Amino acid sequence: MKDVLTALRERCSTRGYTPEKLTETEVRTLLEAGLHAPTAINRREIHFTVLPGDHPLVAEIEEEKNRLRGLSDLPHNFCYEAPTVFLLSAEREFGWREVDAGIAAQSIALAAEAMGLGSLIIGCIADALHGEKRAYFEKALGFPESHSFVIAVAVGHRAVGKEPHTFDASEQTTRL
Ligand SMILES: Cc1cc2nc3c(=O)[nH]c(=O)nc-3n(C[C@H](O)[C@H](O)[C@H](O)COP(=O)(O)O)c2cc1C
Fold it and tell me: Which CATH number fits domain 4-162: 3.40.109.10, 3.40.309.10, 3.30.465.10, 3.90.1150.10?
């Protein structure tokens, strides 16, 4: 298991997975990583929907995304055929919903990295989940009634490699 600083340094977006499924223990550990994330005023408003990558709803979301964008015959679906996808929904009216969901998404991504797994944070399905099929998807995905989609995270065994993104820390403002 990687320590948290190593996981932070080595995490990068994975856009290609092997067909190997995650174990139930791995899925539970990732879900709990999301649940451990802090939330504003300890609201704990994030709801996690966990689906296998080959679930029919994943295909329906993909189809709706592509319909809205006028796309077809893409080589990968939105989760790049990852075996597991976490969809994070949050209370529509809560002002910190996106920050809270973002922290939880990164917690899942870092836990995946620590466990030797790849991950991808996914926002491109937001239009599909907020569009005309919104009510259908929200019910089918088990979101609480007050909730709507914020962000997703795909997790699986890496089939492709990528270097972590680069940055120049000296461009930041520090008064140390
Ligand atoms: C809020 C958010 C939404 C994102 N949505 C997508 C997405 O829909 N599809 C995708 O392939 N990558 C998505 N990404 C991944 C970013 O493209 C990626 O994090 C960025 O290019 C930096 O690369 P790295 O993750 O390898 O450091 C998203 C990342 C964030 C933080």
Answer: 3.40.109.10
